[in-house]
Amino acid sequence: MTDIMPPFTVVLIVPTGIGASIGGYAGDALPVAKAIARVCDRLITHPNVLNGAQMYWTLPNTFYVEGYGLDRFAASEWGLQPVRQNRIGLLLDCAIEPELRLRHLQAADAARATLGLNLTDYVLTDAPLGVELRIAPSGASWGTLNNPDSLLRAAEKLIRQARAEAIAVVARFPEETDKESLENYRQGSGVDVLAGAEAVISHLIVRNFQIPCAHAPALSPLPVDARVSPRAAAEELGYTFLPCVLVGLSRAPQFVTQLHKRESAQIWGDEVDAMVIPANACGGGAMLSLGRTRAIAVEDNRTAMRVPPEPLGIEVIRVRSYLEALGVLTAYRAGIDPHALLSDIATLSPLS
Questions:
Q1: Same domain, yes or no, for 120 and 244?
Q2: Final residue before a domain boundary, out of 195, 228, 250
Q3: Mean pLDDT in the chain?
Q4: Cβ atoms within 10 Å, residue 79
Q5: Which of 227-236, 279-288, 327-336 bottoms out in mean pLDDT, i.e. has the lowest?
Q6: Mind giving me the DSSP string for 150-181?
Q7: How far is Cα of residue 146 from the mean position of the Cα atoms in its chain?
Q8: CATH number at residue 196
Q9: How many domains does the chain have?
Q10: Greater confidence, 258 or 8?
Q11: Phi, then psi, of 334 in degrees rounded to 5
Q12: Claim to verify: residue 116 and residue 49 sit in the same structural domain
């Protein structure tokens, strides 16, 4: 009888809000995800990698998992249940101005009519969410909500009344007051100051309701600027960043939070074969939990963080680029030690 190999499963992580040179802008890590998806059976990644405002790409073997849920998955506390299609609830901050709100509702209707996505009726929060933006001393972005309870009440209404299976949140974000930071970001050399606060919003909902969630900020369109970097250009295309969120959530796996319900169709953390991470941003929960997995650290993906894997006890193969990482993954999938592909192979030594 021929042995059936288990699916080759890879986790791709690019932490949000840390100025990653690849994946720190508007969906600019999506080409990396597309390439890795071709050399594995199952790719698990998160919205920061796949979201590109109105630019998106459906990858049939790729699972869109919010960051808090990815941490729980990596710790083998939650499993992932693949779905054919989710019913998405749209949650809008009541602080969004009427015209800007209409733009987002039209984007949602377009997703229904053009892409065939399943959306519930929308809900407005009962109080402004009050998003505030912060930059940590490290240079990473984060943020706070003045009214998190309003967010949770609106999410519960969508789940209970509209039977939402995933939630897309659109919060009114403050217009960028630091012009220098905004210009740096648009020119491909700064930190996304919105990303940290976006993560706070989605984490709250996933932690409280164990349901897929992703966020799109509501902002006024920026003036045209011929100097915008291609990496940030996806955010220049329209009035809303919502389309990629709706596409991602439409097939986001549901979370399995009861270990005794483990079934063959589900995916669990102990099934991960390899993890691909930036070489100097290794302190996240998922990375620490998957530290015993084959880890590939990409040095070209520079970030504002200074957290290499070695002091954390994460054993990695360091590569220069994602192109080189693809070669290592191909070797792993073929059952080949990547070091056997090098010109120099050290002789075996006795254990001390």
A1: yes
A2: 250
A3: 92
A4: 23
A5: 227-236
A6: HHHHHHHHHHHHS--SEEEEEEEPPPP--HHH
A7: 24
A8: 3.40.50
A9: 2
A10: 8
A11: -80, -5
A12: no
- Whether residue 229 lies inside any domain: the answer is yes
Q: Tell me the average pLDDT across 95-124.
A: 97
Q: Are residues 110 and 206 in the same domain?
A: yes
What share of the chain has pLDDT > 70, as a percent? 98
Tokens standing for 244? 């990629």
Does residue 145 form part of some domain? yes
Residues 235 and 97 in one domain: yes
- Are 3 and 124 contacting, i.e. CB atoms less than 8 angstroms apart? no
Task: With CA atoms as reference, report the closest residue to 165 among 210, 104, 105, 208.
Answer: 210
Q: Which two tokens stand for residue 163?
A: 């039977």
Residue 3 pLDDT > 70, yes or no? no
Judged against a pLDDT cut of 90, whether residue 52 lies above it is answered with: yes
Please tell me whether residues 227 and 139 are part of one structural domain: yes
Contacts (Cβ under 8 Å, ≥6 apart) of 164: 87, 88, 89, 120, 158, 211
Range of the domain at 265: 9-82+256-340
One-letter amino acid of 152 = L
Phi and psi for 51 in degrees, rounded to 5? -80, 125
Percent residues over pLDDT 90 in the chain: 72
Q: Which amino acid is at 203?
A: H
Q: Of the candidates 201, 226, 250, which is a domain's last residue?
A: 250
Model pTM? Answer: 0.94
Same domain as 118, residue 76: no
Please state, in angstroms and rounded to a whole number, the distance separating the CA atoms of residues 318 and 321: 9
Residues 22, 12 contacting (CB under 8 angstroms): no
